[in-house]
Amino acid sequence: MRVLVVGSTVIDMPMITDHDPEDGETLKIPQGLLFLGGKAVNQAMQLFNLGVDMRLVTALGGDPLGQWALRKLNHVSFPLSLVQKPQATSAYAVPVRMPNKHFIFHVPGINAQVTISDLENLNVNWSWADMIIIQGEWPWEVSLWAARKCSEAHAQVVVNPAPALGLPPELLRVTNTLISNQQELSTILGVSEVDWNQAMPHFFATYPNLNVCVATLGHRGMRYFTRTGSRGSFPAFPTEVVDPTGAGDSLLGAWIWSVGQGMSYDQAAIVALHAGALAVKRLGAGTNMPTRKDLEQWL
Fold first, then answer.
1. Phi-psi label, residue 56: left if phi above 0, alpha if psi -120 to 50, beta otherwise
2. Residues 234, 237, 240, CA angle at the centre, nearest 5°?
3. Whose CA, among 5, 43, 99, 221, lies 20 to 30 Å from 180?
4. Which element (helix H / strand E) includes 198?
5. What is the pTM of this model?
6. What tens digit of pLDDT does each residue of 195-239 get?
7. What are the residue boundaries of the structural domains of the chain, listed by start?
């Protein structure tokens, strides 16, 4: 299986506090940390760690954060095609974890500025891949262009619509696998989770290339729905949560790998949930994604 992952690099700066701050309170964080992240990088790293033949197409600015991220990517040594804009700011995010909530401040930077021309100017063999994975952190028209290039060469298209706002129907028409979280799938279907079962037949009928929808549910686990009507619902595995950033990306990569190994969807769900449970035990995403050895020891 040859997988092309196309999308964002984001530098993560996680902040963890032991209490919910009062209005106007200044919090002192003991140590400032930087981690390589972004949905495309996280997903690419998970696939790479599981031994998948993959390539990453991503973008970085020419600022110090971008230079730091490029050194990190080069250190990993997986195949990379890079959109670079020297005057652009690299994307960064501040995941904040408090006892009663978790949220992320995100500055998209160069990821919002990538164009179709940027991809056309890269030396990428779009027909190389058996599968392309795209997300929502680049402009949708750019992701749609890349998906069509690979789809025309008979590659499978996997869409992780994060965020789902503005997801074009044209992209769903070439999508074979949709992997989203609960809020994203409800946005796409236009119904709440309790009505997913009733909405799925019409959804699959509207998008005839779509074979399976996977929904991640955070601490509640995951669900999947197929074109043939089969469904699965699986609880999350109990684990210590250090940092939930990137858990969904780890799950996605492990699901893709498992299905590629010939596992059933039920088996793939269990492996994917194990990967997600391992991912949240570590601070930072990206290069901290679980390895195949980690999964084999767990399983």
1. beta
2. 150
3. 99
4. helix 196-206
5. 0.90
6. 999 999 999 999 999 999 999 998 899 999 999 999 999 998 777
7. 2-15+32-298
Can you tell me the distance from the alpha carbon of 30 to that of 7, in angstroms, rounded to the nearest whole number? 32
Q: Which residue has the tokens 């309170």?
A: 25
How far apart CA 49 and CA 43 sit, in angstroms, is 10
For 251-264, the pLDDT digits (tens) are: 999 999 999 999 99
Within 8 A by CB and 6+ apart from 152, the residues are none
Question: Taking the C-alpha atoms of 127, 134, 3 and 109 in order, what is their torsion angle to the nearest 10 degrees?
Answer: 100
CA 244 – CA 254 distance, rounded (Å) = 16
Angle at 171 between CA 167 and CA 174, to 5 degrees: 150
End-to-end CA distance of the chain: 23
Q: Which of 68, 64, 115 is nearest to 86 (CA)?
A: 64
- 4: β partners: 55, 132
**Pairing status of strand 15-16 against strand 53-61:** unpaired
265 in Cβ contact with 232 (< 8 Å): yes
CA–CA dist 101, 265 (Å, integer): 31
Whole-number Å distance between alpha carbons of 161 and 183: 10
> What CATH topology corresponds to 2-15+32-298?
UDP-N-acetylmuramoyl-L-alanine:D-glutamate ligase (3.40.1190)
Q: Pull the structure tokens for residue 23.
A: 């209005």
